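Quick start: read one record
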Amino acid sequence: MQFETEFFATGDRPTAFVIEGEQVVRSALHYILRERYRTRTFATPDDALTHAGEAPDVVLLGVTILQRLSEAALIDLRERLAGAKLLVVAERKSDPRARACLERGVHGIVEKPISFDSVCNTVDTTLAAPRAPGVLSHHIRVAFG
């Protein structure tokens, strides 16, 4: 078996924030993203805004957080993280709450079940980072419910 490893200098890797209320999903997203991105995980948007030492390049925001967040709070979050691309992690792309966020400036939706390929491809595409051809697939399925 042959493995291809990518090495990044610490300053070269983009920063990803995962803001997700469900611990299992938050941990899975951290595990998936940790090889390619400097990843910080938070249970609430307030934690992310309070404890973040640096501005993220991309934010993955769980739909469970969106259910508790008012529209004004989403706008405030988007303004305070102005340089970051926002992605919503939802059960399906047709989720009404996730669709409404797309209309309000969110950059994309990561659909569950999450996998290495689906999450990394969505984040790479959102950040406009091309994927190297021939990279091995790291497919993992996570079931919830």
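The two ends are 34 Å apart (CA to CA).
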